[in-house]
Amino acid sequence: MNNRRPGIVVSGLHSGSGKTLVTLALLQGLEKKGFAVRPFKCGPDFIDPRFHEWISGRTSVNLDPFFLSPGEVQALYDRMTEGLSGGVAEGVMGFYDGLAKKTSTYDLARILDLPVLLAVYSKGMAETLASVVKGVRDHRPDTRLVGVIAVQTGSPKHGDILARALEEEGLPPLLGTLPRDESLKLPERHLGLVDVRELDRSGQLGRLARQLDHFSSDWHWEKIGGFFDQSSGESLAVRSGPPHSLVPGTRRSGNKKKLRLGVAWDSAFRFYYPENWSALESRGIEIVSFSPLRDPVLPEELDGIYLGGGYPEHFLEELSKNTSFLESVQGFHASGRFVYAECGGMLYLTEGPVENEQIRWAGLFPYRFRMNARLRRLGYVSAVPVGGEGWFSDSSPIRGHFFHYSELVAKNPASEVPPGFLVDGRPEGFRSGQALASYMHLYFPSSPHFLEEFVNQLENVHSPSRNSSHI
């Protein structure tokens, strides 16, 4: 372990195997034992990391081999665990899912040379657990499977049977269990878990933390702690305040002109890669948050605004009734300043839902949207911005992912809006003046050139109305 990175990867056999609960229990338990750990999430996910942050008090960082080279993934992990005891990285889907694209949890654990803790949904399972664990361990000879957490166990006796089955076969040991208990369920909606802030306000997360603490009290913490460095002396007991909203540790550029980027941040707009904000800050951009739900107008002195994804479809009337803010966005766009939107943020820039034309949103694009019962698109994407006068002039691709249930319906089929990107040669998203929007969630650090062009859009503001009211 001396030359290896401290930390552990939490994986499972499939989605819904209990990885998030196990990760939360680890983050909380390690902190109580005096270890200061950084949470991570494998793959493109905006929801699970917010739960990590809630229970750990530290920003959770996405690690994705599709977005970054192996060396860049290693450097990001090392930078974000510097001075800490190590990291706890929650995997994505099943352990080997994504092998074809080298984006699986196995690939990430191999890149970081981290041991793997396997969360196994064990309801209705006894000695068969040994064959399952053996299959996972032996499927790739370099898999460093070091332990198992059994989820959905029926009783302490059930846990004893599972532990004995692993021990008799000489397999990695059972390091803990989480029983079948209603208090350990997290509610879901179409994009995944319900937003952490909604559950926090209801008190459900506080109850969950107490139950995780209770049920994990007899885990083999002395073995788990062996995968981490000694405590740095920092712990939740001596820290106060909310978790960092931006990734720390970046160096600001020497840009003399301070540029201000407004970022939508409330219950309707929550899906962002913190690394995007960090990358922008390192180039001299000041991040200023605003709420389309609550604020009467945009903040003053902005050079651009960024509307991320989220759940705007759950706040149809609230967003529509905030007419002064909608007018502020419309005026901002009309002034020639940069507007960038992704997925739910793009929906906010349409005219609203097809089902209710009384709902009026920003209307920057001549479309309405409808929600579908089934997922429309899911997966990784490599996109090329469409160039034009004053626009992203280089054809360097940028990487990201799709994950949406909605679709757009043209208000007037004859209306033509220039595309914002090309994906496999096909148009994706839209441009309207200085507004750029698409369904894609882009990972800015995957394309340094896109980052520079993004900054250029903020700098190329020559409107005399910049310092005037946004209404």
Task: Summarize, please.
It contains 14 helices and 24 strands.
Radius of gyration: 23 Å
Number of helical segments with 4 or more residues: 14
User: Could you tell me the strand content as a percent range?
Assistant: 15-25%
Give the tally of β-strands.
24
Average of the residue pLDDT scores = 88
Structural class: alpha/beta
Low-confidence stretches: 235-256, 462-471
Overall 3D shape: elongated
Under CATH, the topology of the largest domain can be stated as Rossmann fold
Strand order of the largest sheet: 3-2-4-1-5-6-7
What share of residues is helical? 25-40%
The N- and C-terminal alpha carbons lie at a distance of 59 Å
CATH superfamily of the largest domain: P-loop containing nucleotide triphosphate hydrolases
Based on the structure given, which CATH architecture of the largest domain is correct?
3-Layer(aba) Sandwich
